[in-house]
Amino acid sequence: MRISLGPDSGGLARLSGLSRALAVALGCGVFLALLAPQAGAQNAAEVVRQVQLRYDATRDYSAEFHQTTEYRTLNRRIAGRGSFYFSRPGRMLWRYEEPAGQFVLSDGRHLYFYQPAERQVIKTAVGVAFRSDLPLSFLLGIGKLERDFRSELLESTAHGHRLKLVPRRANTGLREITLTVDAEGYDIRRVRIEDGSGNLWTFAFENIRRGVGLDPSVFRLKVPQGTDIVEFGS
Q1: Residue 77 pLDDT more than 60?
Q2: Is it true that domain 2-232 has CATH number 1.10.1090.10?
Q3: Distance CA 18, CA 116 (A)
């Protein structure tokens, strides 16, 4: 069953909040999970430059993730975990083991968010869901970290480095991103994202595999039987 929601429908507020969360969590989480600057970076600018180069050279990758979401405005904390898959340009899949069965999928044109408990897939165009978010523009290959973010190296030890990214442009809905990277190899292991309301998304990545040659069918929507597809913005 397909249901269309126009701009003035009652589902707008609910989907708008979902889109904002996905814009921050997905956009940032995706590109931060795969990036790995080359060894030898000595300052924030060099780390950022190597991050961009590494991302531009990465065709696809997969990883396992643990996610913690803290909605400070609602005094609510949610934990999640699962597997993540990415392929250029702009295709990604977050397959959750917790909450079981949940997934977020982008085929490069549309974003699909499946909620098993509600037996519902929310479908929206990528441009609608992420209209004002810098992280997604980077993910889709049209954004540049050096151009879009101010960077600061917070800490540098024998074990790793912490880097803070702050949007240069106002009204993005994003306050800052903090990366934790390995000292050797500079693989990104932890990402902390804070939006303009103080809500936090934290991602920890492990078992990162790059250049795995992902089959395009991984990013093909498979709707569980008996599930409604709710289209927003059609």
Answers
A1: yes
A2: no
A3: 16
